[in-house]
């Protein structure tokens, strides 16, 4: 099987979730374009971003699904969790309500992804220290209690943005190495070698078996 | 069934199974995750049932949030066989007698299983969230005689119970007839059995097999003469049957419905200032509203009269009002606006602190105003006063329609209106007019959006069953990839100028209601080759459609949609389901809810994908009710 001119060996699907206006799209743009797009329109449905990164010498393509935050649209956005290998759950450190809603986002994530999905909690807008409404400590505790990785970040300054995306990838990669993440399982959210058209990450299982021998 | 005293044999159990279609009695279970069982009641004549019980009988009350849930995770468990005392809760199980099931279809990479009755209607469907339904199919094959449908290899037809002695006899007599690769007797059986009810489908399937034998089957096959006779007689019967008493039906089914050819409908010139003035009388009343609308539908509105005409289209001005009456109305509306504006403007700090709903609404609007069309000159730059106007109008609208409040997407709808009017009060009332047309897009429960997606699917399936089927097979029959198009009427896909043109065309309600859905169908029709040739799946379809933003030639699309509209209304097989969507009187000779309407393709037991999905969508809608 010809692998084609792909310069990466895995695709990881990420989903970014959290209340409206917490800065999900800005985090995505900061990560993919290294720019702060302060007035990008609110997201309707879902938008995509990609970037190729390297973990342990392996090139990995991140396929990032940036979802709409408003409660009313959750019915639609819920259909996008399926098969995510990583979930970035974002709140805004200057708005407590966005922090209070985390448990419901977490419930959705746990219910709609698989047990090996890596969940990373991001407290965004940490450049706005003066307007802080949620302490680092309490969020850290929430993260620890729920087994989540956690950083405070700023889509504006770029602080910790790379870290959050990369750390998630490392954790996923590790799960693959440890065999905790079963690539053969449907909806692992990881694809070995790029998508054959028509085979999205959701059907990585069959695809993987074929690709496996090519490398 | 008084199964409380009975012994129960659980032949198969699997957790993590989402139920997406169910008989009406069990509608409350829809879209819940639970355990699927195949159960045998040895004391009641070996009755077998498909049963399903919710994960927890006290189901999460948050139904609204569950409505579109596709997957959910629960612990894995799978067991085969085992005799259990009857569970008291058993009476609450969804229960379907296996004898009522005549076929089942496997789809979604073996994660979805749909059981169907003798008419080919879906009885219940399940999504296996862990792994797939292969285990269950293996079990079903063990207890039932099944054959794979020739038309659709994902469909298993169930033949009579394997334990039926009569069956065994006949099986034997057909056994020597090694015509078919798999289970020949079963095949012939199915044919004979199906024939009286479904002469056309049964025949077609049989013929296709027989063609195999005749043209491809080598001579070395010895045909048992007895069997040969049976086949021969059956075929004779078919001929008689179809040519005589069910002639009409035969014709009807055999006719593969085709749409008339797509004709060109060139776009016209926009409504000009002169035209507009000519259509008003000296008092300023517009006599022939339909004539105005027709011109607008054909070519839009010239920019020098657009501002005025929009006020009529958006019900701010009345078509049949004299200048004097108009002035009066304007005065009233003006006062009304400022009363409402004052209501929120006069809110004290303490009032606000005690009014969480209001504060949340306000912060939502603030956030969105700051990210609405900031790339357009009109809204660009820090402290742009137009942003303040945008904010004020949205806040006032939230007072005007407190139940609806502010929902994301509204600022997109207001932005072009404000840009054009460049006047707070006028923009407000025009926005009210637009919202009256599309407020269901913003329903709390999203019922309006769901209905439109469903209608879009029905139209797509009618216009192009093959494409609808493709979407179905690629997890996309829910049409979610068109969500953004529909929510803000292509605002995110088109330039400011184009979106204004499209909106004014759509506001005429010509040539039919819901013409915006035909705009979707037209764009999809243009893209479908790319989607299908590349064999795009769920993700790629979504991405491709998202990426069309900025690359849609709206004039071409409108003109194509008009052509499609004419193809559809001229179609001989136009169904009531479609008539209802485009606002034509229904004929009532076909049932509207019959999901098969969505597709002219009514072939054998297979039912194609879109049918399946329509009932899936229906189920979703029901689950919400
Ligand atoms: N100061 C500061 N502002 C930020 C930061 N990230 C985002 N913002 C601002 O927050 C607002 C919302 O950001 P978005 O990225 O659009 O929010 P979102 O989470 O994608 O929102 P939805 O698409 O509505 O769900 C924007 O106006 C940004 O300018 C940050 O790190 N610091
Ligand atoms: Mg966003």
UniProtKB/TrEMBL annotation, chain A:
RNA-binding as UniProt keyword: no
Signal peptide boundaries: none
Keyword rRNA-binding applies: no
Bias (Polar residues) ranges: 193-215
GO terms (BP aspect): defense response to bacterium; endocytic recycling; Golgi to endosome transport; phagosome maturation; protein transport
GO terms for MF: G protein activity; GTP binding
EC number: 3.6.5.2
Gene3D superfamilies: P-loop containing nucleotide triphosphate hydrolases
Class of this enzyme: hydrolase
Lineage top rank: taxon: Eukaryota
Pfam family, any one: Ras
Entry cofactors: Mg(2+)
Compartment list: Cytoplasmic vesicle; Early endosome membrane; Golgi apparatus, trans-Golgi network membrane; Recycling endosome
Gene Ontology CC annotation, any one: cytosol
Catalysed reactions, semicolon-separated: GTP + H2O = GDP + phosphate + H(+)
Chain intervals for the UniProt region annotation (Disordered): 188-215
Keyword line: Acetylation, Cytoplasmic vesicle, Endosome, Golgi apparatus, GTP-binding, Hydrolase, Lipoprotein, Membrane, Methylation, Nucleotide-binding, Prenylation, Protein transport, Transport
Membrane topology (UniProt): Lipid-anchor
Stated family: Belongs to the small GTPase superfamily. Rab family.
Protein known as: Ras-related protein Rab-14
Species in which this protein is naturally found: Pyrocoelia pectoralis
UniProtKB/TrEMBL annotation, chain B:
Coiled coil: none
Main location per the UniProt record: cytoplasm
A single MF term (Gene Ontology): GTPase activator activity
Pfam families on file: RabGAP-TBC
Keywords: Acetylation, Cytoplasm, GTPase activation, Phosphoprotein
One cellular component term from this protein's GO annotations in UniProt: cytoplasm
InterPro entries per the UniProt record, alphabetical: Rab-GAP-TBC_dom, Rab-GAP_TBC_sf
Subcellular location: Cytoplasm
Entry-linked SUPFAM superfamilies: Ypt/Rab-GAP domain of gyp1p
Presence of the UniProt keyword rRNA-binding in the record: no
Sequence ranges assigned to domain Rab-GAP TBC in this UniProt record: 300-510
Assembly description: Interacts with non-phosphorylated form of RAB8A; phosphorylation of RAB8A at 'Thr-72' disrupts this interaction. Interacts with ARMC12.
Described function: Acts as a GTPase activating protein for RAB7A. Does not act on RAB4, RAB5 or RAB6.
PANTHER family: LD27216P (PTHR22957:SF645), TBC1 DOMAIN FAMILY MEMBER GTPASE-ACTIVATING PROTEIN (PTHR22957)
Protein name: TBC1 domain family member 15
Originating species: Pyrocoelia pectoralis
């Amino acid at each position: 099987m010809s692998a084609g001119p792909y310069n990466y060996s895995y695709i990881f699907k990420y989903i970014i979730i959290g209340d409206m206006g917490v800065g999900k799209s800005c985090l995505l743009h900061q990560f993919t374009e290294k720019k702060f797009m302060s007035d990008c329109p609110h997201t309707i449905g879902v938008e995509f971003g990609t970037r190729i990164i390297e973990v342990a010498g392996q090139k990995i393509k991140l396929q990032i699904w940036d979802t709409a935050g408003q409660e009313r649209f959750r019915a639609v956005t819920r259909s996008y969790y399926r098969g995510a290998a990583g979930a970035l759950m974002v709140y805004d450190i200057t708005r407590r309500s966005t922090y209070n809603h985390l448990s419901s986002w977490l419930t959705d994530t746990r219910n709609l992804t698989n047990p090996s999905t890596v969940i990373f909690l991001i407290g965004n807008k940490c450049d706005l220290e003066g307007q802080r409404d949620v302490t680092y400590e309490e969020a850290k505790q929430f993260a620890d209690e729920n087994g989540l990785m956690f950083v405070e970040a700023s889509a504006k300054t770029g602080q910790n943005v790379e870290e959050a995306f990369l750390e998630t990838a490392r954790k996923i990669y590790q799960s693959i190495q440890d065999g905790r993440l079963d690539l053969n399982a449907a909806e692992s959210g990881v694809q070995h070698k790029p998508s054959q058209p028509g085979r999205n990450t959701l059907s990585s299982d069959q695809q993987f078996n074929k690709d496996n021998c090519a490398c | 069934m008084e199964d409380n005293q009975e012994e129960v044999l659980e032949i198969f159990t699997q957790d993590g199974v989402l139920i997406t279609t169910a008989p009406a009695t069990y509608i409350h279970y829809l879209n819940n995750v639970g355990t699927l069982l195949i159960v045998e009641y040895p004391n009641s004549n070996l009755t077998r049932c498909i049963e399903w019980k919710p994960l927890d009988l006290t189901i999460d009350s948050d139904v609204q949030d569950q409505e579109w849930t596709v997957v959910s995770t629960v612990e894995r468990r799978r067991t085969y066989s085992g005799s259990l005392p009857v569970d008291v809760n058993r009476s609450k199980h969804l229960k379907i007698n296996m004898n009522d099931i005549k076929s089942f279809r496997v789809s979604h990479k073996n994660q979805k299983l749909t059981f169907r009755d003798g008419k080919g209607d879906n009885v219940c469907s399940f999504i296996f969230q862990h792994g797939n339904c292969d285990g269950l199919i293996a079990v079903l094959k063990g207890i039932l005689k099944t054959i794979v449908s020739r038309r659709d290899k994902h469909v298993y037809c169930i033949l009579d119970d394997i334990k039926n002695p009569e069956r065994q006899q006949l099986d034997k007599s057909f056994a020597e007839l090694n015509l078919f690769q798999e289970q020949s007797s079963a095949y012939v059986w199915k044919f004979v059995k199906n024939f009286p009810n479904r002469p056309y489908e049964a025949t077609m399937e049989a013929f296709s097999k027989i063609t195999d034998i005749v043209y491809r089957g080598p001579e070395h096959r010895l045909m048992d003469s007895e069997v040969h006779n049976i086949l021969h007689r059956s075929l004779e019967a078919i001929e008689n049957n179809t040519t005589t008493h069910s002639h009409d039906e035969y014709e009807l089914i055999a006719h593969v419905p085709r749409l008339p050819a797509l004709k060109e409908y060139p776009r016209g010139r926009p409504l000009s200032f002169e035209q507009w003035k000519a259509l008003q009388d000296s008092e300023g009343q517009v006599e022939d509203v339909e004539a105005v609308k027709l011109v607008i539908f054909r070519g839009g509105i010239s920019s020098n009269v657009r501002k005025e005409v929009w006020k009529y289209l958006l019900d701010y001005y009345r078509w049949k009002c004299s200048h004097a009456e108009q002035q009066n109305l304007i005065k009233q509306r003006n006062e009304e606006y400022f009363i409402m504006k004052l209501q929120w403007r006069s809110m004290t700090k303490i009032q606000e602190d005690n009014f969480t709903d209001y504060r949340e609404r306000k912060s939502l609007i603030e956030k969105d105003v700051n990210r609405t069309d900031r790339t357009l000159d009109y809204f660009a730059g820090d402290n742009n006063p137009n942003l303040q106007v945008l904010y004020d109008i949205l806040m006032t609208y939230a007072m005007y329609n407190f139940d609806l409040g502010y929902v994301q997407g509204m600022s997109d709808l207001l932005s072009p209106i404000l840009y054009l009017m460049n006047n707070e009060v006028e923009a407000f009332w025009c926005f009210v007019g637009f919202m009256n047309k599309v407020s269901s897009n913003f329903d709390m429960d999203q019922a309006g959006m769901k209905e439109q997606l469903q209608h879009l699917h029905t139209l797509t399936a009618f216009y192009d069953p093959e494409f609808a089927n493709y979407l179905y097979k690629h997890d996309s029959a829910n049409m979610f990839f068109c969500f953004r198009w529909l929510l803000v009427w292509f605002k995110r896909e088109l330039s400011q100028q184009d979106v204004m043109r499209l909106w004014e065309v759509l506001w005429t309600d010509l040539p039919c209601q819901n013409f915006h859905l035909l705009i979707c169908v037209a764009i999809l029709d243009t893209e479908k080759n790319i989607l299908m040739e590349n064999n795009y799946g769920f993700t790629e379809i979504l991405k491709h459609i998202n990426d069309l933003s900025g690359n849609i030639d709206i004039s071409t699309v409108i003109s194509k949609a008009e052509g499609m509209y004419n193809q559809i209304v001229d179609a001989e097989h136009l169904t009531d389901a479609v008539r209802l969507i485009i606002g034509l009187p229904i004929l009532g000779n076909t049932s509207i809810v019959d999901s098969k309407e969505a597709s002219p393709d009514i072939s054998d037991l297979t039912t194609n994908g879109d049918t399946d999905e329509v009932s899936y969508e229906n189920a979703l809608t029901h689950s919400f009710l």
